[in-house]
Amino acid sequence: MPTLPAQLSADLATALNQAGIELPEGVSADVTAAQDTRFGDYQTNIAMVLAKSQRTNPRALATSIVENFPAESISETPQIAGPGFINFKVKPEAFASLVTDIARDTDGRCGMEKVANPKTIVLDFSAPNVAKPMHVGHIRSTIIGDTLARVARFAGHNVITDNHIGDWGTQFGMIIYGWKNILDQDALAADPIAELLRVYKTINDQCKADESVRDACKLELVALQAGDEANLEIWQKCVELSKQGLQGIYDKLDVHFDHWLGESAYNDRLGPLVERLIDEKIAEESDGAICVFFPDNKALEEKPCLIRKGDGGFLYATTDLATIDFRVEEWKADEIWYVVGAPQQLHFQQIFEVAAKMGHKTNMEHIAHGSILGSDRKLMRTRSGDNVQLTDVLTEAVERSRAIIEEKNPSLTDDEKETISEIVGIGSVKFAELSQHRMTDYIFSWDKMLALTGDTAPYLQYSFVRIQSIFRKLAENEGLDQAGIDTLLANATVALSEDGELTLARQLGRFAEIVPMVLDGHRPNLLCSYLLELARAFHSFFEACPVLKATDTATRDSRLVLAHATARTLETGLGLLGIRVPEKM
Ligand code: ARG
What we know:
CATH class of the largest domain: Mainly Alpha
Strand order of the largest sheet: 1-2-4-3
Structural class: alpha/beta
Subunit structure: Monomer.
Low-confidence stretches: none
CATH topology of the largest domain: Isoleucyl-tRNA Synthetase, Domain 1
Shape: flat
Helix content: 55-70%
GO molecular function, one term: ATP binding
Number of helices: 21
Keywords: Aminoacyl-tRNA synthetase, ATP-binding, Cytoplasm, Ligase, Nucleotide-binding, Protein biosynthesis
CATH architecture of the largest domain: Orthogonal Bundle
Number of domains: 4
Number of strands: 13
Radius of gyration: 28 Å
Bound molecules: arginine
Distance between the termini: 34 Å
Largest sheet: 4 strands, antiparallel
EC number: 6.1.1.19
Family: Belongs to the class-I aminoacyl-tRNA synthetase family.
CATH superfamily of the largest domain: Isoleucyl-tRNA Synthetase, Domain 1
């Protein structure tokens, strides 16, 4: 079923047609959600937009549109307000049929249609540099990227997720040197990531103090790049161990990649790529290095993109350009989305510009994000000043939610407590991340993200659980099994009259409108706000409108359908955020 505003938009087009008003090129009969629902559920400003070209005043135009508005529309007779707004109040029957559809649909789409023209979207996110553990800051790209992948798939696009790990950086000079000189095999066997980090940090410190170590590391890097067998073997082992460590974190986060094509996968393409750019006169020599200049681009005029250093070494940009070639050729990418922190803005501006010069038509987006701050408003650090490791954060999240659950519901079994604290703990961290505008720097706060009554995952999960408990109680009272409940829901007729019911129904209808907006601006926070509003609408409804104690069975059943549709939408919406819901908590 098309969304309510899409249906209203179609009716509006009919009315305009009937009234003999033609839409000028580029103008569409848009209908948007009303700011103030006292006057209607949706509105349009089309009369104001068209008044000038129609040489009439907006109110007169609005009147003629309303007079021609189809009576069979899902809207009551539209009302004109202010300078010429047209307000639509959706008929309760239309809301009722929408709620029924959401409650009954078996494909879990909650009223959302798939896009008519699916695109192939490559999503590049997470992409940590290996041999260094992921720190808390990596969660932003990882979680935002995973959510965008889920939402884009849900919308019907063909999504390819690729973890473009940094597995060929200069850090390998230090790691190989350290591996040969200070590696502790037992420590490596016990906790590879920790040992690799220790090696990296120790050598990094030595490099700062001692030029001879610096030189030795450089030699190891050059040997690696030249294909030295021993160094390649060490490199390979480091990458393998790091990947295993990363995989453990992704498993905990329930994040999946279709591919892990790291930087090293493109090594063979770098030389030929640079040659091609020189041949095509896109790149040129400058002081021994090879650069792309952007004389026609004001912002980049003074910021050439370096693609080969004087010593022959390639750069981050070179790899990214080779990666674009591959993704377009092999995967036929229509879009490539990079979820990477804001400090890399210049890098992406440059490579997008070079890609355009290379003739790529693919739409590329740098989906930037801000940082996570500690309570001192500085980048989050441990007491000793180190980066906070992501695994530690996730472990703590689960432990803390376990304590809360123990206190709230001690009668749960140990197994239940364990599962629920996983779901709630990880969900809390994700929701805290996703509910922020991605560009804002936010302060990491356990208390805020775990609160049962704030703008949090536990609040939403608890709302879902509350609905489940209505149905458990119903089953108990009436001696029904799941099949019995399904039959009851299937036979119920939804009739909405109370404010609480209508507000909840209106909110349910908006799900299908919000999901596409998440993709338009790459803004998962819109879905978070939506779900919070939905949960609030449910709680208001539940306070004002008794469900199991409704005055008659018909009302009870109608409200049960509303509750069920809410649970489905909460579960589906949270699922798009990569957040699971428990049955109890
Ligand atoms: N490895 C990079 C970093 O940690 C991020 C890579 C992002 N993706 C890309 N295609 N450049 O900064």
